[in-house]
Fold:
Amino acid sequence: MQLEEIKQTLIRARLETEKVIIGQRDVIDMALITIITGHHALIEGVPGVAKTLLVRTLGKVLGCDTQRIQFTPDLMPADITGTNVFNLKDNEFTLIQGPVFTTFLLADEINRAPAKTQSALLQAMQERKVTIDRATHSLSAHFTVFATQNPIEYEGTYPLPEAQKDRFMMKIPMSCPRYEEELTLAERMLGPEAPEAVLAGDTVQAVIGGEELTAIQTALQAVTVRREIIEYIVNIVRETRATGTILVGAGPRATQSLLLACRAHALMAERDFVTPDDIKRMALPVLGHRLILHPEFEIEGLSVEEVISDLLREVAVPR
Ligand SMILES: Nc1ncnc2c1ncn2[C@@H]1O[C@H](COP(=O)(O)OP(=O)(O)OP(=O)(O)O)[C@@H](O)[C@H]1O
Ligand SMILES: [Mg+2]
Structure:
């Protein structure tokens, strides 16, 4: 696929998604960025802001199947990967595939499951493979996880260790709809245009088949990133390790994620090259969840948002 054709496809994907999801343009774009770069994302938002609906809609629009797992304290690794079951009739074991055998997976409240189960998912994310009774099975080449987390204060949660959060390219914040949007939503809910009904009907068209995601991912490499832009990204990531208010900064995986995310962001903005503005826009979603602030500043009420915007003011912007 040519870059021009891909830009058009992405714009159509956004428009089709907007037939179901009201507002949330930035969220839709960031989810598309996650998918076309072949990564995974955390989605953060209060209940009922359409996190589940978004992932299901993207599945339909991009021609990919979707599954959802609700994480609970008693969820076992086999509940997500699958189990071999002895089949008396054929006298052999057959694999009952778990929900990871899909393309888009919504992992709800991932921090409610114990570490063993979380790591089974994280292994699947990283390798796009799962091991069940010593046999390794490949997952979809475009296996993408969107995970939500329960607030950490919640009783009986197992917070994701930093090393595991690092596996997510970005954290996508999903806020409540604006007044006008909420009004539209409320009106639609009364009739045949209710978001769920629109998704179930045939108004929403698939813009590509799942296989075409490979072509899009390859074509991303044609988006130019100048040397000064690469330096800018590296400088920003390194600055997270030098800033006094940050206890633990971002590792090298963040650099790669920021580069890729900015490339995809440029494409979503119908450009063939990355600009410093792409980087400023993606810095918070890509870096925010990887940073740990110094407790003393956190107590004073300093937020990751503030730290990153200060940092962006510090680092020299290429011309
Ligand atoms: N921006 C929106 N666009 C369209 N529908 C919306 C929007 N926000 C909320 N809704 C409506 O709210 C319903 C709930 O959405 P959904 O179940 O996807 O929320 P959720 O964020 O996954 O919630 P939870 O955290 O409880 O799982 C949707 O089915 C839809 O009708
Ligand atoms: Mg949900």
Summary: The chain has a mean pLDDT of 92. The chain has 14 helices and eleven strands.
